[in-house]
């Protein structure tokens, strides 16, 4: 009979068993009614079959369990799950292309808010909340919840505070039970799009306040293991390193989701996650590698869907540290790297070569300023001009946050040898990489990272990743002329002015060359063949509420 896999055993075994690479098709044989050829350490249980047989449980395999549920303090697994719990005042429209549904960034519609008004000067928005929106605790959404939630983000001075800053929001105030006022310092071209986000999250403040203390007024410690939102799902329990269990919000205002329960299992090994999917023991896996995707595309037991990427896989150069404080060195690094070779060798031919910091799926993307085709001779000449005729030595730090980091670091180091640069790849932990790239530190001269806008807007992309105050500007890039252009685009109500400012900002950023441009990786999702409904989102995380069987 068909074997059933105990994913808890995988989680325990992953630390003892070294992953040996991508699983080939021969490793899991399609055997009809026969047993699958599974590694010996995968124990058998009926839990996976029971979960799928129920039809209302989604079993998902991810690298680990979430390490917290505060969207203002992203940790491993946080963003993947808080997007299921916290939803925005607005949302993007939807458009149908063939048998797939996509977001339409040109259309913003009401979500937790049903409508809004804007003052003539663009400095005051009043949102009317949808009536009857309730959390799993039974508390109805009020303007006081919105005011409290934004106050939390302002106080934390992290992701939500950046969203407020880039949207020009200075204050959020409840006017009545269902009306909430946003006051802006200047008109904002991106506010309505920013309000589609999970952060600042809209919390059930009535519930959170029960768990707040004088030392912890926002209930942040409680949020490490609990959720209180108005979205489609709610955390029931979490066992670190094993699994988190989510259940649907019985009061969800858009109706009952297909999946009433989601089991988010920790399966650290990517090869094991693909094994579980191919053998039918889970219905969704988190972020397979490109090689795994290519293997699974030939397997009729798996469905793989894709979407153009919005995040760039790049190598960052710290513009405040030698030798990368010299623009000639940064340009030389770009000329030395063969982007097509990276696309073929690392991304296996998938994705799109990056030619701007604004991704191709966002309006006003302009690749015309890209000037860094592979040219080792030009790289050597620039290095000589900068006083490095014999090159230099540097460490290239990488982590395991994204699967492509190590192979890209190795390939780039090999390519840099041709221009005399001795580049030494060095692995550090993902937590260390994030901490060292934080605004208060930023002490890495050269490192890998992947970033992209979670708001489908060019002004947001530029502000997030390249303005001097951007929370994802992790290598101290600063150019006052660039910042002024971003501010002009962010505050002008004239779309033509915005477009021109965005274009000029892309030109300046390309000339300053703070990153080694490589590829926009393609986004892939792998699922059971009977799962449908996936709608790609700019944060590249599925929404369980969209998914169904059949």
Automatic annotation (TrEMBL):
Gene3D superfamilies in the cross-refs: Dipeptide-binding Protein, Domain 1, Dipeptide-binding Protein, Domain 3, Periplasmic binding protein-like II
A molecular function (GO) term: peptide transmembrane transporter activity
InterPro entries in UniProt: Peptide/Ni-bd, SBP_5, SBP_5_dom
Subcellular localization, as worded in the UniProt entry: Periplasm
Keywords recorded for this protein, A-Z: Signal, Transport
Family the entry assigns: Belongs to the bacterial solute-binding protein 5 family.
GO biological process, one term: peptide transport
SUPFAM superfamilies assigned to the protein according to its UniProt record, in alphabetical order: Periplasmic binding protein-like II
GO cellular component, one term: outer membrane-bounded periplasmic space
Domain Solute-binding protein family: 107-472
Protein name, entry field: Solute-binding protein family 5 domain-containing protein
